[in-house]
Amino acid sequence: MGCRRLNPYFYLYLDCLIGIGGMKREKEIRNITLWGSVVNIVLTVGKIAAGIVGQSAAMVADGIHSLSDLLSDIVVLIFTHISSKGKDRDHSFGHGKFETLATLIVSVILIIAGARLMSGGVRSIIGVFNGEAIPKPGYVALIAAIISILAKEILYHATVKVGKRSCSPAVIANAWHHRSDALSSIGSLIGIGGAILLGDKWTILDPIASCIISIAIIVVAVKMALPSLAELLETSLPDEIEKDIISIADSVHGVENIHELKTRRNGISYIIDAHIVVNPHITVTEAHNIATDVEIALREKYGNETQINIHIEPDMESL
Description:
The protein is mostly helical. It has helices at residues 22-53, 57-83, 96-129, 139-165, 169-198, 205-232, 239-250, 284-302, and strands spanning 257-266, 269-278, 307-314.
């Protein structure tokens, strides 16, 4: 079972589909996201309070960034719950794309957060060159930055571990949102620490670091958004996967050819449509059994969640 040749564009391994069941998967995602929400609430309140008391605009902005993390937690909770539902009358292929949509939304939130950090940093830098002074922060803001970095980095590792195990791009995107908060706190730490230890003229370190970090956040967000957007636009699976599908189908006894292959991704699963050519002199039952064997072989490779539609055609040259 294992698809370790997946194009990085579709970076999650399908072999973990059998490693965690649907109910267990949703429970793990819910638990880690709820823990993240609790941490984000505490950090939002704590960092804004520390920023006000310690006269650090950077720490107040950092607290607002944690608030955006809380918003992404809510998005992940809602959409992964919907995506865990099976097929119904209105969604004959299931609800997998809801999780894809959640990934795209979280990625957009990350881009907005990164852009806001960049905008704030640029304004502060311009202000310094225009003679404006950035207030020297207090030690309480420095302590808040250190606590934020440690808490969000631990939360990142715990969340990304669950995301990879559950094959959830939305959870992995949310993990990177946690890390973006840790990175923004590093910027705050540099600026606050530099201002305290080196003097008022070094307070410009804070906005400079924020600008650099915001670029990294935006780059990561765009890389996560592109595969989600491709899936929502019904982009075909990478060529190497389609070649594997053709090879697997051709290896089934009774299949003479395969064509009209159409593929796409649906959340954590694949959707495969194909025409197979069989001997025109066999019975309908025999042809049906061949098609069933093809489906079994593909599900053994790509997981039981794979949705397969096989159309049977007679080999006209054999008539």
